[in-house]
Amino acid sequence: MGSLRTKELSKIGYTNDRARSLVINIISKHFKHHTKEQLITLLSGIKEKPEQYINDEVLGKIAATFIEKEEVTHHKEFTLLEQTGRLKIYGGKEIEHAAKKQMEIAMSLPVTVQGALMPDAHTGYGLPIGGVLATENAVIPYAVGVDIGCRMSLSIFDEGESFIKRYGYQMKVALKEWTHFGMEGGLDVEQEHPVLDDPAFQATGLLKKLQAKAARQLGSSGSGNHFVEFGMIRLAEDNSLGLPAKDYVALLSHSGSRGLGANVAMHYTKIAMDTCKLPREAQQLAWLDMNSEAGREYWLSMQLAGDYAKACHDRIHINMAKAVGLERLITIENHHNFAWEERLEDGRKVIVHRKGATPAHEGEPGIIPGSMTTAAYLVTGKGVEQSLFSASHGAGRMMSRKRARESMTVSALKKMLADAGVTLIGGTVEENPLAYKDIESVIAAQQELVNVEGRFLPRIVRMHKE
To answer: How far apart are alpha carbons 47 and 466 in whole angstroms?
Structure first.
């Protein structure tokens, strides 16, 4: 049966996911010796005249999918597939079992086409962090995540090491005065950006309600592992930026779409879970059909949240450069926690979800950070289809926040920072470097996915203070 693909089923009218998953399960059990032609003839017959097959013990279930009227409850129930799609794992030895198990459940969804797990992967809610999932005509809010469009942004300035020595104090002041961290609030000075006038804010009742808060929070960052930091980047010879290979002052930021993304995520996850009923272990992976009203609304809202996350970084980088009088040579940035419409090499159109994973198409720049005392890497993608054109989005957590709190004292963290020559403003022991995997091993595990273009080391780090 392996030879009948979802694409071929769609061609003969099996466009419903439930019908397709039934067909694949039933045929692999009862009709494994039939040829492809015989199967297509049989399945076409069932679609044309379902009433003739409705009482058949085996085929009746398939026939029923063409007779059933839309259930009044407006929800559909789905079963998981026994045979899963293609999954490729990178750096698997360092990935916890629970994250792999989560990924296997995602691979058994009837809408899944292909998946990949990045070397920084760890357990998340729904899809593991570091999980990449390609689906057919379906978007899964929890495979995107709560912080929609969370991203990295790196600005490189035309100054060297001596600038930090001379203006380190001004840099610290700028980081204190021109950043804001935490769930609520924003900067003291009103921020402006064209994104606030995006007509998408008027497209749904929810987005209309969120516009004022988005304006207040513009240019600020969240809590947890979000940061804004000054450091030095060493660019490699013949780097794709076309800049001389030497050391530059750089600004690196990591944060997302604030309350806007979180509210969109929660609103549409609830709709997905109410309308797409899955077995208990897969409930969090409920999806929205891209042709449904909720699917289209979520997609539009997700795009807006991504644009808004970018706008927050734009403001952070403009404010910082201005406060310390730096001239930007170039800014490189990229989303994670997002979904994209992409094509696989066989021409199939899929929705690629990257939850805590960086897009890495051929020549595409990306940033993979370590921790507050370790390197971040500037990379370009090699365009590997097996990884769904992705790379890791960081070093990845090795300890839960609770364990990180219990296993590190404030004074031990201070010593680690001093040894690394890093000044920390704010921050907590939850984000201590030992809570993360070794960034060097994580980069080594994805050499086939990315080229290294530069290595950044943090010097003055600003994070949320609990």
So the answer is: 60
